[in-house]
Design brief:
The chain has 249 residues and is an alpha/beta fold. It is built from seven helices and 13 strands.
Length: 249
Amino acid sequence: MALSVTALSVGRAFGLNLPCLTYMRGWGSTIDIPLIMFVVEGGDAPIVVDTGADVTRAWDTHGIRMEQTVDEQPDVALRSLGIEPDEVQIVVNTHMHWDHNSNNHLFPNARVVVQQRELDFARNPVPWHRMLFDVVPGLRPAWQQAEEQMSPVDGDIELAPGVTLVTLPGHTPGSQGVLVEAAGGRYLIAGDCVYLYDNWHGDDDADHIPPGYYTDLIAHDQSLHKIESLACEVIPSHDSRVVERKIFK
């Protein structure tokens, strides 16, 4: 068994304020970021990690300018690897923010794995985080299109041979990563615990930089230290260099 991780662009977001991604850094600067869907191959069946946003309502509902080409639609992007959406048996949402779970319904035969505490929070987030969880007046959260497929878990678990869920709370209460044992080493799909390589590599003042969005900054710091203990290569969730590299094996 030779596992690999492929990073597929499923859209782009433009003009985000940099401190939203790098805590208290980059005031006055903006950044464009990719939306990334990851595919773990080499096991009994492909595993999809995060399914992107519904870009059709990004501006009107969330005030974010996004684009998505036809080739970046999640089902089309998956087919570029020779995989049909109905072949996917497991979808992992690293967390329940709308830009990571809005297309779960495109994978009809998959169970959608999320931490129970994340699902609980997504159903009733604190007011300041409602928009991130698609809890908007008059709008049904996109993830609810596949709500019957949800398969909540509690804690770190082996998802499949060589694939382990790792809890990484802080960005959200139930954020998680996916640790993959590939032939060339261990890779952690870190979710929004690590937006950019800049978050992981830090600066002169800190070894790591958390994101600007979080529910618990102390828990986030502990999660970053947990990643250090995993002896793995970190794959950020929104870094263009991840898409450029594309394959981790």
